[in-house]
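S1.2 Input.
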Amino acid sequence: MADRLSEYSVASVLASSDAELQKLGLSKRERHRVRAMESLVLRSRYERAIDPALLTPKDAAELVIAELWGEHVETVVVAVLNIHSQAILVERVHQGGVDQCIVDPREVFRPALLARGSSIIIGHNHPGGDPNPSRSDIELTERLREAGEVLSIPLVDHIVLGGIDTPVWTSFAERGFLDGIRREAS
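S1.3 Output.
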């Protein structure tokens, strides 16, 4: 089984349906083993959720900076939060070019659904340095906010990371576009 799955990422194997696993040649018993591994991975994510809560845009920005600072192409990460606003999973969901990244909402919410998250924060970088959201960033945020409402997994912030020598960022929640995260006191 390990040989047959070695060319795939762990995330893609765990996200595969039984039918997809069967197409890869896995027996019913092997598919049950994959599901057991999935359960262990999810449980370990919950057990590791000892990080402090992400309650402010600054908290969210620090997480995005830790994940994306220094990237040379636009990269999107999603932080899946538990009921206590702690990150139980941070996953890169897309990489694009130096000035654009097309994002599929299904890929953004997939980690949250698999980890049974309560909410999400997304972040992406602008390799050119300007942390101001583009029109497509604003449209994406609106689509993700709407999708989150349907799925009952709210988008609580979207951080746009810029800067050349030092990180600078913009928070959609801080600008009042999203209301799922507290704004810092002025």
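S1.4 Remarks. Confidence is low (pLDDT under 50) at residues 182-186.
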